[in-house]
Hints:
By secondary structure, chain A is α+β, with helices and mostly antiparallel strands. Helices cover 27% and strands 25% of the residues of chain A. In chain A, the strands form 5 sheets. Chain A has an 8-stranded mixed β-sheet, with helices on both faces. A 4-stranded antiparallel β-sheet of chain A has the order 13-15-9-16, covered by helices on one side. Chain A has a 3-stranded antiparallel β-sheet with strand order 4-5-19.
Amino acid sequence: MPASPPESLPALDLTGDLTELLVALVDTESVSGDEARIADAIQAALEPLDHLELIRDGDVLVARTQLGRAERVVLAGHTDTVPIAGNVPSTTTGKGDDRVVHGRGSCDMKGGVAVQLAVAAALREPARDLTFIFYDHEEVEASLNGLARIGRERPDLLAASFAVLLEPTNARVEGGCQGTMRAEVTLTGVAAHSARSWMGSNAIHAAGPLLERLAAHTSAQVEVEGLVYREGMNAVRIAGGIAGNVIPDRCVVEVNYRFAPDKDDAQAEAYVREVLDGFDLEITDVATGARPGLDRPIAADFLAAVGGEAHPKFGWTDVARFSALDIPAVNFGPGDPSKAHADDEFCPTADLHTCRDALLRWLG
Amino acid sequence: MPASPPESLPALDLTGDLTELLVALVDTESVSGDEARIADAIQAALEPLDHLELIRDGDVLVARTQLGRAERVVLAGHTDTVPIAGNVPSTTTGKGDDRVVHGRGSCDMKGGVAVQLAVAAALREPARDLTFIFYDHEEVEASLNGLARIGRERPDLLAASFAVLLEPTNARVEGGCQGTMRAEVTLTGVAAHSARSWMGSNAIHAAGPLLERLAAHTSAQVEVEGLVYREGMNAVRIAGGIAGNVIPDRCVVEVNYRFAPDKDDAQAEAYVREVLDGFDLEITDVATGARPGLDRPIAADFLAAVGGEAHPKFGWTDVARFSALDIPAVNFGPGDPSKAHADDEFCPTADLHTCRDALLRWLG
Lengths: 364, 364
């Protein structure tokens, strides 16, 4: 038998029905590590657009205008998803503007990618130069993140006056993002046979006061540039004990601190150490937050154009990668962020239209 | 090349130096599941003794006199060890009666097995009929225990008026044993993204009051037939959390209750439920304790013969299997029980002699 021909790429119609475009994207499976095919499909759809310079680097695609405008705006989104859960291919419910697309990636964040693509095709002569970035490996460890890689290897491709990350925000503007820090608190004791427990000292019991302190802790609400960020400090993992008959001499609690973007890493660490004073802790991971940047004129201009009020972004997002390059960045995309990664994730057609229309209004 | 010949069995000299006998036993590796070779060696050493009827069943060996005495005493010990830790072959330190054998199984419990073998060889016409039991799979899950299997399949082989289990007791009599019960306490919450922790409820934090309660609990000391048992209730394992960015909705704490032999299983469970009132718990495992049986004449006779004072056994041991058959049983063996399973376990020659001589005095 002859070898099978390569599977044909899904056709992406960038100027047709936006909901159908999202369906086509969802139906092109692209779990992290497996983004080549969706990148191929996006590349094939963008290639005919001669107003865009197209650059492919691994599975990252950068499409940009070169009109010599005074300002440049980045519109960025990732093409990968978390693993599917029987929710690909997509299904749709409702009709017309009430139509909803259900399936893996519909919310996080192929709805945003669909909007990026529609805007890329529609705006042949934007008022500001535009850079569309489609990147891989957002849903896995940060070291693989396609946007971070481009930032390291080709930072010129990210240069801009402003960036919009099309992560789901219910089609409203969410400014900046909170930082996230992880600390490991280690409780120690003395091992002993559990039949002679008085010979030992129980490290799991020693975690009691730590957990009580975390439960009693009231996290701050911090206003930054008019947005109120809500912090949180939580045990997210605990493990202790080696056998059913041994008094444990070690118990480890992983604490996650989400901190407002008024703090840098050192200030966040100092706060964790203050709250958990007396415990043996080690900082294992930190991702700095991003200030909303709403005090900059271009951000105000964006807000005025898209309408509505800005809200704080509680989760950490890749806007922080732009913020670290001193590029103000906001989150603005279709879909409910609380449905990201949920098995029943979905994206409403109305959100797709809201985001697309707002961006066209601002950039047209 | 021809196949290698089967490795020859270690020679066990049952009437020579007791310490050398222990060395030979330790040097015959017998981690649980791998007891065939040591059973072969013991079988080969016992076969020439025509005062003993020898029965092999799997890797269990039963050797017994059939003299028609009014009473029968069981001397039992297991041949398996926990995994070695670079401590086989054995080493010895000191000289003469101060000699000490170091190595896996020296304490738990090949010292006891050496004493069994020496007594088996020495007593050709004991005052009471004797049953020596050497069994496998004591150090692993109870369902594999060789003594338990014989109790189920051939209970006649266990019949006796009294049993001595030669587990390490520092060569003193330890009566009965405490029971052990395990309970799983499940704390529940509501999962949420840790950046929006107020949307969830933290199940790990909910473990704080449980751990505080366990830490504050004072365990009872209970007198049974003149021996004071010391109980204990401890968290021995804790696990919660599924990811570094998720508020955990589940945390499980395994609690181990060691209870005095005045309580049956139902009374032990009632006590656990009383102490942990308000928590969702499930009993996952229980092994009933054994009363010391020191109120029986044969036990008093044993105590008088071996000398010294009886002490309570805090750990659970296979004496409970005899107790369940209404056979009074005590623990009496060489080695420090707190060194059982320790990487630096050892057995003093003096303990070997003390135990052997006491048994010969009582049974001779």
